[in-house]
User: Fold these one by one.
Assistant:
Number 1:
Amino acid sequence: IAGITQAPTSQILAAGRRMTLRCTQDMRHNAMYWYRQDLGLGLRLIHYSNTAGTTGKGEVPDGYSVSRANTDDFPLTLASAVPSQTSVYFCASSQGSNQPQHFGDGTRLSIL
Amino acid sequence: GEDVEQSLFLSVREGDSSVINCTYTDSSSTYLYWYKQEPGAGLQLLTYIFSNMDMKQDQRLTVLLNKKDKHLSLRIADTQTGDSAIYFCAETLNRDDKIIFGKGTRLHILP
């Protein structure tokens, strides 16, 4: 079934550790996105990529990095995790940057 | 400024119609969306409307857009227990393709 796959589904991580959240889509969408969802704050855009080889900063990029080496994959890396990065992370993709976005099922990340 | 506002909660009796409302401040939108999020899941695109349309109907769902008042609504006819979820309103801005989400409306179904 076509869609977006995120891994892991959940993770508990010690502060200071490095962590990469994986996101893969098989819809050949050009644009991909990473959001975090926090209670009371809704969805906030971390980073995005309009096409393979390009990335851009969203609303809350600090402490996160991304890469887009190919069309299908868009990993999100926390170089040194902090407790404020405890959240649910969603990856999304769209055919074009102004097209409807389709979401993965999320990664629940807890930083202790 | 860019803002999408929704009420946080709505309770509806099973079988009645649900109407979830949304207001937005930026008039340069291209698409307006409704997403549904069930517990523990991602956001599922329910329906969307182009900014030059007034209405879109899809089975039990009706979307109404009032551009003059910058108001979007989602009507769910014959509300079922499976409709219990959080519903997010969102718009894509024409000038930078950014998508702005509301904070979501939690729909609670009463028996």
Number 2:
Amino acid sequence: AQSVTQLDSHVSVSEGTPVLLRCNYSSSYSPSLFWYVQHPNKGLQLLLKYTSAATLVKGINGFEAEFKKSETSFHLTKPSAHMSDAAEYFCVVSGHGSGNTGKLIFGQGTTLQVKP
Amino acid sequence: NAGVTQTPKFRVLKTGQSMTLLCAQDMNHEYMYWYRQDPGMGLRLIHYSVGEGTTAKGEVPDGYNVSRLKKQNFLLGLESAAPSQTSVYFCASSPGLAAKETQYFGPGTRLLVL
């Protein structure tokens, strides 16, 4: 079975400082991993995804994530936070296995606050 | 190209009432999904469909029914609403096996059951 744990429910940074949102996963198979972002009262938008190609994945808006199999982690980073980055972020693992249709399994979410 | 749209955006129901949420996508995707989002719990899969005329249960299917009569539409029904079904409902679609495919989400429907 697959699962994902976001280690922080809330992260607060100052504008211009680095962002780190932590995610650990559990999977019996080679996983596909995603980060989605949800701005207030909006739907979810894909930031980036890992599907067994390069372990360092670059996404939109300057975000990137590194897949580390030895640590079962997929942390999201950005060198310099912008006010518009304030949102909720979800780490997601895609289910694999016999009969599975690739259902997404979501973490609990991390709220990113960006202070001026 | 509107992507994934959901109707209605917001609804208030009384306990025991029924309603249908409509999801439409114009991307010709085979797979469609219904999720609910509750505080501190991320999104949980209610039902999904791998093609026109097919549906299957997800993680939290009780109290909901779905239908996929047309490829572009995926309906979520509540036959007898309960306060525990107060939530934000998201529809999503993907072109193929979602293990590697991106899911595209609608804007959500906020449902309040009194």
